[in-house]
Design brief:
Blueprint: H1 12-22, E1 26-34, H2 40-53, E2 57-63, E3 66-74, H3 78-86, E4 97-98, E5 110-114, E6 135-137, H4 139-147, E7 151-154, H5 158-161, E8 164-166, H6 177-189, E9 215-218, H7 223-234, E10 240-243, H8 246-257, E11 263-268, E12 275-277, E13 296-298, E14 307-309, H9 312-317, H10 324-330, H11 334-341, H12 357-374, H13 381-391
Helix pairs in contact: 11-13
């Protein structure tokens, strides 16, 4: 088959309507494996053809170092999908993580991409042994070590931590994996962080730990902790452990074994759902009004698309946008929106999420005042409207 045809050729609205009318129960799952793969381009095309025939949707990265997949499979085809994976030695018996919450709409299309790495970590893998990873812990052991005073570190980006995290965890401020791991190394090396009472051991007369801390890492599904734990061990930290299967499998183990959750709130996911609830705790606030909320969404103005935490009331007030400025554009007729967007880049390609809520609230106040004064925040719209009128 022509490789050009092995990709999605339909608009999102068509895909969404197709999924709505499909009427099939679906199961969202994820898996990864670090394994040496040859001829990844050919493998990518074969996987696309085979999985499309099974009705698989999702986002998949294949690279010489392995595979990283988040997919939605028609539930009736789960057995056939498992058989297809196991038939390939590289993917045989690869563990699955089943989504905690699933409405069947996690993905609209199948996208399989060839990458240099299965996680964009920004690290030079040849500089350290990526196979020398930390000890994998199940949920029960992870909870116990937390109770014993281990240092718990969230290895996700800052916007993922917004709506849920383990209680007492260190939450990096960086919005990239490379930035987060460097921040964590610096934190661990500081004499006053972690504090003596967080350290597994005693302190010397100057209050400095005489034993290095027990470090617990966690992320969404475990893949980022593989690299992070190996990197920390390369940096000289020896007591490094990681949550096996990440938050997704932690939630499964909680239900299976009746354990108490030490994770609070929702788990951020990279699909149409954006989040799945682990506990009823709300650990974040609306970035626009400050009310307790963990509803995460993207600004609906296409050239913004920034992630933010937004309560239902603010979603109504700002028409699912991050600000009055974006709302004004989003509420234009579609042709006027397209004319305004021409030549403009999308903000979220540079910064994924709003990271200064107070700055956003200040911007909103200023824009409200300007809107009341001038009637618009985009004077250039008068030219666009005139051209649209002339064209019609």
């Amino acid at each position: 088959m022509d490789p050009h045809r092995l990709r999605n050729l339909h608009r999102p609205d068509v895909l969404r309507a197709r999924l709505e009318h499909e009427g099939l129960p679906r199961t969202t799952l994820s898996f990864y494996r670090y394994v040496r793969l040859a001829d990844v381009e050919a493998l990518r095309n074969t996987l696309y053809q085979d999985w499309e025939a099974l009705g698989v949707l999702g986002r998949v990265y294949v690279a010489p170092e392995g595979i990283n997949a988040q997919v939605s499979v028609p539930t009736m085809n789960l057995g056939r999908f498992r058989t297809a994976l196991d038939a390939r030695e590289a993917f045989s018996k690869v563990p699955w993580k089943i989504a905690v919450e699933d409405d069947g709409r996690s993905f609209l299309k199948l996208a399989i991409k060839v990458k240099k790495k299965i996680v964009a970590d920004g690290l030079a893998d040849d500089a350290f042994d990526v196979t020398n990873v930390g000890e994998h812990l199940d949920a029960r052991t992870f909870n116990r070590k937390m109770e014993e005073g281990a240092v718990v570190i969230d290895m996700r980006n800052n916007y993922e931590c917004l709506i849920g995290h383990f209680e007492g965890a260190y939450l990096p401020k960086a919005d990239t994996f490379r930035g987060a791991i460097e921040e964590v190394v610096e934190m661990l090396r500081q004499q006053d962080a972690p504090t003596p009472d967080q350290v597994a051991g005693t302190v010397d007369p100057q209050g400095r730990p005489t034993h290095e801390p027990q470090i617990l890492l966690y992320c969404t599904g475990g893949i980022r902790c593989e690299k992070a734990s190996a990197f920390l061990k390369h940096q000289g930290f020896t007591k490094v452990s990681q949550l096996h299967g990440g938050i997704i499998d932690y939630a499964r183990q909680l239900k299976a074994e009746g354990l108490k959750s030490k994770y609070l709130g929702q788990n951020f996911v990279f699909d149409e759902r954006l989040a799945e609830r682990i506990t009823d705790d709300v650990v974040s606030t609306c970035m626009q009004c400050g009310a307790p909320s963990d509803r995460i969404t993207n600004c609906h103005e296409a050239t913004c698309n920034m992630l933010l935490v937004q309560c239902e009331a603010c979603a109504t007030m700002y028409a699912d946008c991050c600000s009055p400025s974006c709302r004004e554009i989003h509420q234009l007729p579609i042709e006027a929106q397209r004319a305004w967007r021409k030549g403009r880049s999308t903000r979220s390609t540079k910064t994924k999420a709003v990271n200064d809520p107070e700055g956003l609230r200040t911007r909103i106040r200023e824009e409200v005042e300007l809107l009341a004064l001038n009637g618009t925040l985009h004077p250039e719209l008068s030219k666009i409207s005139f051209k649209a009128t002339q064209a019609s």
